[in-house]
Every structure is written in structure tokens, then in C-alpha cells.
Design brief:
Helix content is 81%, strand content 0%. Helix 1 packs antiparallel against helix 11, helix 3 runs antiparallel to helix 10 and helix 11 packs across helix 15. The chain has 466 residues and is mostly helical. It has one domain.
Length: 466
């Protein structure tokens, strides 16, 4: 067996696998809950503003594709390196793991500067291409102009926080998000209402909060508490390591990138068939989806370093146990979430706005959108396993399949063949069922076969005469 990493007290090869996963997942879930509040609280305050009301919320919703695109590059350069970082730690290759982390940081810094400049230059044509009307553009531009200042802080926080969790410090990783989110929640009403800055105030509160989180993350990674600290001499772009990060991170990038593509196609189609009201309904629907996806996202995020580490340490039975746990807990939770949406659809819209018409129309759309939500658990279980084991080929394919191949065409076609705005909301459940099952079944057929082959080879090596 390979030599374990030097931080043996964070060794994931000991103890029940489900406990290891939950010890990672629970702090991550709390962190992601706070992260969600980080984003959702802006929308809640903006939706209840005295002036603008749902139109202001529509404007902020139009910026989502740009924000998602920034997160796609964060996932590409940051999250793309975490699984191979964990695998190298499991093998005991601490120096290479440190180089991977430094390379990720350099890529995040460089890309954040390029993205900020590009978004400022092309913001107007981009927002109109994404479904803005003359009225909603005013609010979208007002929010985006300030939000983009925090791009570098956002990318550092999200991209590098995974390296804290991968070293076995989920509570510290949780605090990275909690500190910034708490600041955002406190600052939002101050800037929006007390200083009467409206949408600009919401964006400014977010930027300040992102900066606080970024400082916390860097303070830990450069400090003495990290088992593998971020070293200045390792902050560089190495072609070989960059290729490894891109190879695996491409899956994360495509997942976020296709989400961006879906948001664009949804907004533009809804603007054509329903106007600003339905663009706003989709903004709230996406927020509700984010709320309900949080626990399962936390579980699979917590499982990835555990599965990656055990795979690197050749503990294949523990890898399978991690996959089983992800599948069971994910299916049980998503079934419960689906039930809550079916029973209380209007409640979720009333949280975000006082607009009665939006709540009435939105409740109907929400029920359609969440139909078959349980199948998302299979997509998560399969996708996270491919990512944890460094299987870029399958991970990339299923990222493209669900969003780009299924959702986008249906979003564009269904409204034009008689379903109207309902067709946009119908595309999601169809993709959940088809994409989720295809991803999970393929994972079971390919990953288990590979694991059994590797386990057999290890057994033969141990029993063969020396």
C-alpha cells in the first residue's frame, strides 16, 4: 500500500466511511448555507425594495449568467486541482500536492484580471443578449458595475477554499464562507435602505464581504496551521500541472458553463414569450433550487476528498462505501425536498417579493420545474464520483449531456411548439430524469469495473511469491 500523507491525523483511510464523509460534509453544508444566504439575501432585500420591486429583481437575475461564468473559471482553475491534490496527498507526494495548489492560485489570479476587464468592456451587449429589456437593463448594469470589482476576491475564496477542506479542515473552510456571508447579511440592509443605495448597495455589500472571505482563506493557507501551506515559490504556472488541472477541471467548467448557457437560453426565451415577469419568476425559481440543492451538494463535496484519498491509498472497498452512502442519502433527501415544493409552492415566492401576480404565476412554474427532482441525486452521485477519481472523460461528457444536449434544445423548442413559457420550465425535469439516470448507470458500470480490476491486481501482488 502507498505511504499515507504526512498529515496522518487527517487520514481518511480510518474509521467508518460515512462518518468521514459527514465530518467533512456537515461543516461544508453549513458553509454552503451561509454562502447561499450570501447570494439569496441580496435578492430578498432587492425584491422587497419600495421602488422597482420585481423589476429590480429581474435586473439582478440577468447578471446571473455572468456570475456563473466567473464561477465556471473558478471551478476550472481552483476546484479542478483539488481532486488530484487529494490523490497526491493519499500517495504521500506532499511536494507535488503543494505545487498543484500553488499552480491553481496563480491561474485564479491571472484569470480574474482578464475576466474583470472583459466583462466591463462588453457588459452592455452581453446583458441585452442575455434577455435584458430597456427597463431591466438599468438595474442589471447598476448591480454588475460594482459586483465585478470583487471578481478576484470571489475567485480566490471559492477556488482556494477547497484546498483547506482537502487537508481535513472543514470547519476552517466553513468559516471562510461564514465570515463573509455574515458581513454581507449585516451590510445589505445598511447600504440598501439606510444609505438608500438600492441595487448598488447590495452589490457593494457583496464585494466587501468577498474581500473579507478572501483575506481569511489566504491567511490560513499561508499560515502555520495548514499542513501543506501555500508557498510563494510554488505560485507559478507550470504547463504540465496546468494541463492536469485543466483536464479534470474542464468537467467543473463545463458544468458551470452549461449552467450559464441554460440561464441565457431561459432568460431570452422567457423575455420573448412572457416578458420581464417570467424572467423574474425564473430568477426566484433558480434561488429556490439553490436552497434545496444545498444539502446534497454539501454531501458530495464532503465525500470527494474522502473518496479521492482512499482511491490514492488503494482502499477500494472504502471508495465503494462512499459511493453507496452518497446515493442513498441523496435520494432520500431529494424526495423530501420535492414533497416540500409540491405542498408549499407559493411560500417560496412570497419570501422574495410582495408581487402577488408573480407569486401566483410562479407557484405553477415551480411545481413543473421541480418535477422528478429526486433524479438530481443520481446526477450528483455519478458526477462527483467521476470527479473524485479523476475520470475527466466521463465527467465532461455528462456535464455536457444534461445541460447543453438536453436542457438548452428543449428550452428553445418546447415554447415554440405550443407549450409557451411552461415549456422553459419543463426542460429541467426532463433533463434530470434522462441525464441523472444515464450518468449514474454509466458510473456504476465503469467505475466499479475499474475498482475491481485494481483490487484484483493488488491482491495478486500481495500473494505472489517474492
Amino acid at each position: 500500500m502507498s505511504k499515507p500523507s504526512s498529515f496522518s491525523d487527517k487520514n481518511f483511510t480510518y474509521g467508518p466511511v460515512w462518518k468521514q464523509i459527514m465530518s467533512q460534509a456537515l461543516p461544508l453544508m453549513l458553509a454552503q448555507l451561509i454562502q447561499l444566504l450570501y447570494n439569496v439575501v441580496d435578492r430578498i432585500y432587492i425584491g422587497h425594495m419600495d421602488e422597482g420591486n420585481s423589476l429590480a429583481l429581474t435586473g439582478v437575475g440577468l447578471t446571473f449568467p455572468i456570475v456563473t461564468l466567473i464561477m465556471a473559471f473558478t471551478a476550472l482553475f481552483g476546484n479542478g486541482g483539488v481532486p488530484i491534490f487529494s490523490i497526491e496527498c493519499g500517495k504521500g507526494n506532499d511536494k507535488r500536492a503543494s505545487l498543484i495548489m500553488g499552480n491553481s492560485f496563480a491561474l485564479l489570479l491571472f484569470s480574474s484580471v482578464i475576466l474583470t476587464a472583459a466583462c466591463y468592456i462588453f457588459s452592455k451587449p452581453i446583458l441585452f443578449a442575455f434577455g435584458a429589456s430597456n427597463e431591466s437593463y438599468i438595474y442589471a448594469k447598476e448591480y454588475l458595475d460594482i459586483y465585478l470589482i470583487g471578481t478576484i476576491f470571489s475567485m480566490i475564496t471559492t477556488g482556494m477554499n477547497g484546498y483547506i477542506n482537502a487537508q481535513g479542515f472543514p470547519k476552517t473552510g466553513m468559516l471562510s464562507i461564514v465570515i463573509g456571508a455574515a458581513a454581507n447579511i449585516l451590510l445589505d440592509p445598511v447600504f440598501i435602505f439606510i444609505f438608500d443605495m438600492g441595487v448598488s448597495g447590495a452589490a457593494l455589500a457583496t464585494v466587501i464581504s468577498q474581500a473579507i472571505s478572501a483575506i481569511w482563506v489566504l491567511h490560513f493557507l499561508f499560515g502555520k496551521k495548514a499542513d501543506l501551506p501555500l508557498k510563494k515559490e510554488h505560485i507559478s504556472i507550470n504547463p504540465t500541472i496546468t494541463w492536469d488541472i485543466l483536464r479534470l477541471g474542464t468537467s467543473n467548467f463545463i458544468m458551470q458553463g452549461t449552467a450559464c448557457l441554460v440561464q441565457i437560453s431561459c432568460n431570452t426565451t422567457l423575455q420573448n414569450f412572457g416578458g420581464d415577469l417570467y424572467v423574474c419568476i425564473m430568477t426566484v425559481t433558480n434561488s429556490v433550487r439553490d436552497i434545496f440543492m444545498l444539502p446534497i451538494s454539501g454531501i458530495v463535496s464532503g465525500s470527494q476528498p474522502v473518496i479521492s484519498y482512499n482511491y490514492g491509498a488503494q482502499q477500494y472497498d472504502r471508495v465503494k462505501s462512499g459511493i453507496h452512502f452518497n446515493t442513498f442519502i441523496g435520494a432520500a433527501y431529494t424526495m423530501l425536498a420535492w414533497l416540500l415544493v409540491l405542498l408549499f409552492p407559493k411560500l417560496w415566492f412570497e419570501i422574495f417579493s410582495d408581487d402577488i401576480q408573480m407569486s401566483y404565476q410562479g407557484a405553477q412554474m415551480l411545481r413543473i420545474y421541480f418535477f422528478g427532482f429526486v433524479f438530481m441525486s443520481f446526477q450528483f452521485a455519478g458526477q462527483s464520483t467521476f470527479q473524485a477519481l479523476g475520470d475527466a472523460k466521463h465527467s465532461i461528457f455528462f456535464s455536457i449531456l444534461r445541460k447543453a444536449i438536453i436542457v438548452v434544445p428543449l428550452t428553445l423548442i418546447l415554447p415554440r411548439i405550443g407549450f409557451g413559457v411552461k415549456g422553459v420550465f419543463m426542460a429541467e425535469p426532463v433533463s434530470n430524469i434522462l441525464g441523472g439516470l444515464a450518468c449514474y448507470l454509466t458510473m456504476r458500470l465503469t467505475v466499479y469495473k475499474r475498482i475491481e480490476k485494481l483490487a484484483s491486481e493488488d491482491e495478486n501482488q500481495r500473494t505472489s511469491p517474492k
